[in-house]
Recover the amino acids of this structure.
């Protein structure tokens, strides 16, 4: 274990990165992601917050753990970590599949969440109008393996596709995922539907979206924005599904404005 001040902390029961002091801010990654993808956010927000970024089971530094085939199980995994760390109330951000997970967390423990950020995500795991269906992605993952899949799918998360400067970062992180966990994640997303919970999530919520996102189209974003009782919307122009890597300064400014509001 490294020192708290080094902006990286690995601890049982679940691998995670942690740095800073103040209001806890929890960052939850998505499919083929990992806590390492949030390094710039950890460094930026740890000046004013206690930033905690878990690795979901089967991904990143938790790649030796068994994955989960339900979004609710992933939510319980994150809640268990926060309980172990003795975190009371906190701010919560989820990206992509992680956005589904934090919606489930918010439905389970709404009184502990001060502010919620739903970034590049939607209320329906099947992802209508995605660049390809979940079934197609599953078939290609079985045929191609994780390494090829993260390079292929990861390229769709950027405006510049294969030439994107942030793509190597995501592929290095995605390469670490276990194939079993990746397949289970597809199963989890395919059957998840969080729409019935939205009207009961009263905490201030920011819906954050890159305007050319090919995974979560506007129809999903609009449902979140229009259904959540206390939601605001921010659209990052000229960005796609990985806006935090494409437009980091704007991404941080939008988050800072919302979290400090």
């Amino acid at each position: 274990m490294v020192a708290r001040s080094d902006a990286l902390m690995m601890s049982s029961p679940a691998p995670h990165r942690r740095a800073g002091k103040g209001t806890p801010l929890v960052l939850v990654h998505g499919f083929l992601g990992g806590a390492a993808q949030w390094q710039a956010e950890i460094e930026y927000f740890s000046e004013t917050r206690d930033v905690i970024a878990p690795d979901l089971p089967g991904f990143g530094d938790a790649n030796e753990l068994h994955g989960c085939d339900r979004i609710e199980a992933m939510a319980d995994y994150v809640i268990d970590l926060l309980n172990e760390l003795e975190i009371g109330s906190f701010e919560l951000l989820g990206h992509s599949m992680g956005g589904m997970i934090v919606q489930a967390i918010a439905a389970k423990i709404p009184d502990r969440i001060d502010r919620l950020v739903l970034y590049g995500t939607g209320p329906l795991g099947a992802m209508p109008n995605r660049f390809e269906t979940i079934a197609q992605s599953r078939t290609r993952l079985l045929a191609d393996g994780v390494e090829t899949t993260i390079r292929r799918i990861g390229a769709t998360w950027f405006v510049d596709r294969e030439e994107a400067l942030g793509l190597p970062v995501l592929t290095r992180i995605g390469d670490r995922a276990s194939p079993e966990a990746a397949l289970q994640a597809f199963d989890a997303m395919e059957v998840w539907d969080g729409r019935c919970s939205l009207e009961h999530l009263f905490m201030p919520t920011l819906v954050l979206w890159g305007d050319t996102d090919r995974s979560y189209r506007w129809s999903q974003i609009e449902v979140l924005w229009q259904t959540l009782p206390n939601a605001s919307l921010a659209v990052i122009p000229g960005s796609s599904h990985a806006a935090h890597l494409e437009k980091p300064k704007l991404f941080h400014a939008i988050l800072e404005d919302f979290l400090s509001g």
Remarks:
- The chain has one domain: 4-259.
- Residues 69 and 187 are 6 Å apart (CA to CA).
